[in-house]
Amino acid sequence: MTAKPLSSAAPHVSHTSEIPPSILDRLQRYQSYASLESPPTVQGRVTRMVGLTLEAVGLNLAIGRQCQVCTEKGDTIDAEVVGFNGDQTFLMPVQKIEGIAPGARVIPLESSQMMSMGDHLRGRIVNGLGQPLDGKGDLLGGDESQAPKTINPLSRHPIDTPMDVGVRAINGLLTVGQGQRIGLFAGSGVGKSVLLGMMTKFTRADIVVVGLIGERGREVKEFVDHILGPDGMARAVVVASPADDAPLMRLRAAELCTRIAEYFRDQGKQCLLLMDSLTRYAQAQREISLAIGEPPATKGYPPSVFSKIPALVERAGNADKGGGSVTAFYTVLTEGDDLQDPIADSARAILDGHIVLSRQLAQEGIYPAIDVSASISRVMPAIVPEDHLQKAQKCKALLSRYRDNKDLITIGAYQAGSDPQVDEAVERFPLLNEYICQSMKKGAPLIESMQMLNQILAPKHNPNIKNSPLAQQHKQAAAQQAQGT
Ligand SMILES: Nc1ncnc2c1ncn2[C@@H]1O[C@H](COP(=O)(O)OP(=O)(O)OP(=O)(O)O)[C@@H](O)[C@H]1O
Ligand SMILES: [Mg+2]
Q1: CB of residue 179 inside a 6 A radius of ligand 1
Q2: Residue 324 contacts residue 346 (beta carbons within 8 Å)
Q3: Which of 129, 190, 218, 243 could lock onto 357 through a cystine, CB 3.0 to 4.6 A?
Q4: CA 355 to ligand 1 center in whole angstroms
Q5: Of the ligands numbered here, which is closest to the C-alpha atom of 198?
Q6: In 10 A of CB 363, how many CB atoms?
Q7: For the chain, how big is the Rg over CA atoms in Å?
Q8: CA 361 – ligand 1 centroid, Å
């Protein structure tokens, strides 16, 4: 006997007069569902809410799927599937949670809405969902966003060209290459935002993408109005997600600014990506992972955080030969100026160099407060001529010598002639200091920064050096000491 194939057609309800009305109603509803082209959406129900996490049942969705949760007032809140346990689905809202009651409906969305990419983004400020925040109207035009090209690590173009960032100390002493990823390590209030603003205004990159992730809301306006100004803003795209945004929104903002930078790189542009800060990105990831039950490891950070950072940072860099590049600066907060913070440690290991901003220098009024001796650009030897590299190393060595002996020098306890290198450091220190100090209003092009190094290291009979205030002070102290003995 052969089995009859099951008919996929909807059952036809006939002889309606013989069927009780309640069953007839159900059958007719079934008939209309079955005749639909797409099956009906299965909706879920919120059963529990702990902290920021919503637990729902009745859903069978993959991680990363977008949903809408209905509130009591009839609004909806966007949420994302971040985990599951048996038939429970964990959701994390993208917006602030308000008005969600037990049993609230959860409606899965078909696909996530991708933001369109293009030149229309220049000069605009958007949030983590790509919605405009600047009141300049909707973002119209651009290309449909597509998944970024995955680049085979072996076909990535090597970092071989310097990137002019417009900051003298970086251009000259810590030269950055196109496609390099650098960390900007600093405590709070040491001048990170001002330095990022200077780079945005004075760089020679084709476009600058700025991600303001998890910082104070007030700072976003301040950064845009005062630090960037209209000139900086003209070729920048700002993605902002302040500290009071939901952690998922902050993660999305970090990913969106990376995505925008990737788009411009795929268009063959030299893009500068500035993200303030990578630490806040890690903290947002920590909030989410802890909320869905991942155990904490180092300093409360669950292990997944340490795999998310490389996943984000590795997206920057050069494209294949002949393509564009994403040169990225990530600020890393060093809590209490502790450079051994686990995020700082993990960032330092994955990035191609780090620039340390020193509170001590900021207190002395040296801005940008770059501690050249503690900073390193790992690709510098491959992108600058040997002569430049040697000069930069010499400057670093002199600065380090001076700082090591600073206490002795300032109280006049150092005797000139005891160590020729310290003697030279004392003589050249004022010029070195002048070289590092830069007004936030004036850029320093790469060529000029390189040429100025020659002046600093000019032969000793340079009158500037002989008559420098510190050299004079040092000589006076030495003379007084000689008289006393
Ligand atoms: N190049 C500069 N020239 C003069 N002053 C500067 C310079 N850079 C920073 N400052 C001073 O340092 C202050 C703090 O700078 P900034 O806001 O950039 O610090 P931050 O590290 O971003 O702080 P936070 O951690 O609070 O975000 C500025 O308000 C400004 O007074
Ligand atoms: Mg700041």
Answers
A1: no
A2: no
A3: 190
A4: 15
A5: 1
A6: 10
A7: 30
A8: 12
Tokens of 114: 């991708």
Consecutive H or E run containing 77? strand 76-85
Strands 44-50 and 53-57: antiparallel
Cis omega (within 30 of 0) on the bond before 277? yes
Q: Ligand 1 pocket, 463 CB below 6 A?
A: no
pLDDT in tens, 204-222: 889 999 999 988 878 888 8
Contacts of 388 (CB under 8 A, 6+ apart): 175, 450, 453
Q: What is the pTM of this model?
A: 0.82
Closest atom of ligand 1 to 196 CA is 18
Pairing of strands 236-241, 125-126: parallel
pLDDT < 50 regions, the chain: 1-10, 461-465, 470, 485
Residue 298 near residue 150, CB atoms below 8 Å: no
How far apart CA 353 and CA 328 sit, in angstroms, is 11
3-class SS at 110? coil
- Specify the pLDDT at position 73: 87
Return the best residue to mutate from 193, 277, 279 for the ligand 1 pocket (most ligand atoms within 8 A of CB): 193
Is the torsion defined by CA of 135, 248, 183, 308 positive or negative? negative
Q: Is 9:2 a contact under the CB 8 Å cutoff?
A: no
Rounded to the nearest angstrom, the distance between the alpha carbon of 162 and the centre of ligand 2 is 26
d(CA 397, CA 54): 56
Cβ of 356 below 6 Å from ligand 1 = no
Please state, in angstroms and rounded to a whole number, the distance separating the CA atoms of residues 8 and 30.
13
Residues in the chain: 485
Nearest 10 degrees: Cα torsion 370, 373, 379, 384 = 90
The pLDDT value given to residue 109? 86
Compute the distance from residue 391 Cα to the ligand 1 centre, in Å. 29
What separation in Å is there between the alpha carbon of 126 and the centre of ligand 1?
24
Angle at 461 between CA 459 and CA 463, to 5 degrees: 115
Ligand 1 lined by 330 (C-beta under 6 Å): no
Under 8 Å CB-to-CB from 416, ≥6 apart: which residues? 423, 426, 474, 475, 478
Locate the ligand 1 atom nearest the alpha carbon of residue 368 and give its number.
Answer: 1
With a 6 Å cutoff on the Cβ, whether 368 touches ligand 1 is: yes
- pLDDT recorded at residue 83: 87
Q: What pLDDT, on a 0 to 100 scale, did the predictor assign at position 36?
A: 61
